[in-house]
Amino acid sequence: MAPGARIAVYKALYTFGGYMSDVVAAVDQAVEDGVDILSLSAGPSSVPSGDSAFLDVLELQLLFATKAGVLVVQAAGNGGPSSSSVISFSPWITSVAASITDRKYNTTIVLGNGQSFTGTGLSPPTDAEIDYNIAAAADVCVRNATIITVDSCQNPESFIRPLVYKRLIICTYTFEYEYEAASIATVADTMMEIGAAGFIITLDPNIGPEVVKGTMLTLQIPAIVLNDMQASSALWEYYNANTIRDKRGQAVVFAAKARILDGRQAIYTGQAPVVASYSSRGPDVKNALMQTVDVLKPNVMAPGTSIWAAWSPDSEGDKYVKGQSFALISGTSMATPHIAGIAALIKQRHPKWGPDAITSAMMTTADRTGHSGAPILAESSNELIHATPFDFGAGSINVSQAMKPGLIFNVTFKHYVQFLCAVPGIDVKSVKKAVGVACPTKNKFKCSDLNLASVTISNLVGKRKVIRYVKNVSHKEKYTVHIKEPLGVNITIIPESFRIKRRGSRRLRLIFEAIEATNAYTFGEMVLKGKKHIVRVPLAVYVGSTSSS
């Protein structure tokens, strides 16, 4: 994202995870060293215990980092598509959701009879236009080998070398792979050691259509994973029809042939980003009782599925890519560095902007639709559904627009303290002990009053007034405010239009009125349209009751 940025790395995590004290110490050292942006592809395994997640030791450490002018970018978590699965809680943190991109890698195998099947496998092709003989692992193994072990192709000692040399070997995705007793990486090592031309992995009918683990491994030998039961069955049918066996059932003539095409060529479909199923969802919660709060999480979405990046060959973090210098990995941990890098570019363009301004710029300019204008979708359990702000926050990051947002929403440390003092269930003494600042004696501040580039109301009863302040970071411009109201809510905006000078500020008053109890979150949008800028603010409201009495 930002190839010219300097990178400082702090070791705080290990293969087993890590300790909070190490992470806090790393954050503290990074801030002391003068970093501009903290990229945290890590988070707690669950909602912290105690009165509030916002008073957890890491959340507070990140608040002080923000106070020091450091933008904190954190992975939202990989607990999706479950509701309230985010593990990045606080409003001073930019929490990142992950999307699937339009880049695909497909590998094709062409059989001797002209049939072809598509699968996965980041591997080179077999030589030129030559067809290679196919042999099933069970037909080229030593006599004392167990068939289950042989089918998974994990041990080079199980094979008869003259029978496998320069042939494509059929292996089977058995239960051993599911329980991680076998891996595609080991298959590749085995095939290279025994001199095979390549390998084909078919699905075991006893397992069914599983998601095959390790298919995004970069391979040095031609290979394809047929992760489709129909293709697997068709391959076996062709192989058996062209293999001659003796009276004992042993294969004596291998007449089935095939060639594997290059699987390293990317295909771009042009489809819009889709929220990945694993990407953690909102609404945000304030404690382990899973009580929701007036904060939108995640904040923004970036590509997180099948992302190429440098990888340490010594890393034990993922056995599928052990020994590799580059890896193709998925997760919100991959989406996070995208946002951190883009934030670095914004910081370079606007060096005086604080963390709040940078986050605001990314959120208000994010895309809610694809290139065709259709709404962005989200992977649910078994289907694609329309995405909401609890799936992608403000939307999918739009880098060029984030550089010139027009208006920004500023938040200071004082405002974050007021927010903490307003969180229901938090004792004011706890806030002073945690941040060293006492709560105001007459605090009329509500959590929804925090000047974020979003509005979330976790329990609207009757009416609520919400104030937002915008600052102009461009030239003098006139803006018209348009409201798309959440279901069950009537919204009055004052003013409906305004002129704002360069570096000027404007107060916006939104009055939310409950007109129908939805007992569920519904979503809307406030759009500020100028001649050169469009500023979008997501709205999320839970209507508990239409009466304030």
From TrEMBL:
**Entries under Gene3D superfamilies matching the protein:** 2.60.40.2310, 3.50.30.30, Peptidase S8/S53 domain
**What sequence ranges are listed for the domain Peptidase S8/S53?**
1-370
Cite the Subtilisin-like protease fibronectin type-III domain residue spans from the record: 449-541
What Pfam families does UniProt report for this protein, alphabetically? fn3_6, Peptidase_S8
What UniProt keywords are attached to this protein's entry?
Hydrolase, Protease, Serine protease, Signal
For biological process, the GO terms are: proteolysis
In terms of InterPro entries, this protein maps to: Peptidase_S8/S53_dom, Peptidase_S8/S53_dom_sf, Peptidase_S8_Ser-AS, SBT, Subtilisin-like_FN3
Q: Which GO MF terms are attached to this record?
A: serine-type endopeptidase activity
Stretches of the chain forming a coiled coil according to its record: none
What protein family is recorded? Belongs to the peptidase S8 family.
Name the UniProt record assigns to this protein: Subtilisin-like protease fibronectin type-III domain-containing protein
Source organism per UniProt = Gossypium tomentosum
